[in-house]
Amino acid sequence: MDKQLEKAILVGVNTDREEYDFNESMNELHALTETAGAVSVLNVTQNMDKVHPATYIGKGKLEELTAAAEELQPDLIIFNSELSPSQNRNLSEVLEARVIDRTQLILDIFAQRARSKEGKLQVELAQLEYMLPRLAGQGTELSRLGGGIGTRGPGETKLETDRRHIRREIREIKKRLEQVVRHRAIYRDRRKQNQAFQVALIGYTNAGKSTLFNLLTNADSYEEDQLFATLDPLSRKCVLPSGFEVIMTDTVGFIKDLPTSLIASFRSTLEEVNEADLLLHIVDASHQNHAEHESTVKKLLADLHMEQIPRMTVYNKEDLLTESFVADTSDPFVLMSAAKKEQHKVLKKVEHEVKQILKPYHMMIASDDGKILAQLKKESMLVRLDFLEDKECYIAEGFIAENHPLAGKR
Asked: Where would one find coiled-coil regions in this protein (predicted)?
């Protein structure tokens, strides 16, 4: 039997956004709430020039929210912005339900989704760093309210201990993370030494990255119509139409207004992206706000100094389009449907882009030089191999990494 879903009231203040943008942000909060395992029972919104410094919403709206909470008896009340420590404290004193903000909600999803040792450590670090300035008065609240969304991860007992203990925990986690990151760097260097061509899937969360990743690599990445379904970078081999193998990595999705501190806590995921030879930017073409999702991802890449990496756009969910679609042509692109298993379209286009990045070669290889031949078959995109009987040699043509030891041979 499924456990009972927690009930949540969602609260948002619109200060200067267009109504559509604000509604989109609230819809996203609703989707995040469902992903975390709660059901939204009410939306409370307010238009203000700026949020109230003490209580986020105005006095009258707070009274309205208090009355609604008494009637609906929610388990938690989720605010659509990051609350300051004093706002959280003031709201918790007035409202009976557990008070959390958008950042805590995202952290809770991270805590549920993280699979690897590194992912779990990163989540715990982000949660402890977030909670440290918010500890005053929180211990009794957490004891009284028990577990649930916003309390997963470090757990109540850690949060009730003194700040020195939590700072010690943070230092310890950072040390352990450095060790794990070093191990990952060793594996990554090994891949580089093996001349593996690396492709990273990036995109706005819930664009269909994991579905496409599974199609392209025959892998079993967690695939669900939920936000942040993937947290830990997952790498698998992918075979292109020519037989050339690339390493494909599925990464965490990005979201608008994701606090920089949360992105920083997932540094290794972003390092995987930074090591890529080609980025596959997956976009949900059927989403009415797909253009803004695209620009959010591109802005984030620019902020992380990753805009120089060659990029190709995959417009997914073509099967859900109800009108003609206009693509952003600033990057090479393909329009497809992962649901219809149209991975061949993507693989063909990926191969074309890989050829633009690699260096073409034309080589004559002696018939008894099996080592070089084997190397070319394994480490290059071999598109032609003919045996010339009169010269007792092979003619090999294809594409190879510019820094490959064989790249300069003729």
From this structure: 156-183
Kindly provide the residue ranges of all beta strands, DSSP E only, lying in 95-233, ordered along the sequence: 98-101, 197-203
Confidence of residue 222 (pLDDT cuts 50, 70, 90): low
Which carries the bigger pLDDT value, residue 263 or residue 145?
A: 263
Helix 102-113 and helix 117-131, axial crossing angle in degrees, nearest 10: 160
pTM of the full structure? 0.75
Contact 8, 40 (CB under 8 A): yes
Residue 55 gets which letter from DSSP? T
| b/e 49-80 (16+ beta carbons within 10 angstroms → b) | eebbeebbbeeebbeebeebbeeeebbbbbbb
| pLDDT, tens only, 65-76 | 999 999 999 999
DSSP 358: S
Supply the pLDDT for residue 221. Answer: 56
Please indicate whether residue 102 or residue 153 has the higher confidence score (pLDDT). 102
**19-36 and 102-113 are packed helices; what angle lies between their axes, rounded to 10 degrees?**
40
What is d(CA 115, CA 100) in angstroms, rounded to the nearest whole number?
Answer: 24
SS3 158: helix
Confidence of residue 140 (pLDDT cuts 50, 70, 90): very low
Question: Helix, strand, coil % (nearest 5) of the chain?
Answer: 45, 20, 35
Beta bridge partners of 237: 247
> 200 — phi, psi (to 5°)?
-110, 135
Place of tokens 């999702």: 293
Please give the single-letter amino acid code of residue 89: R
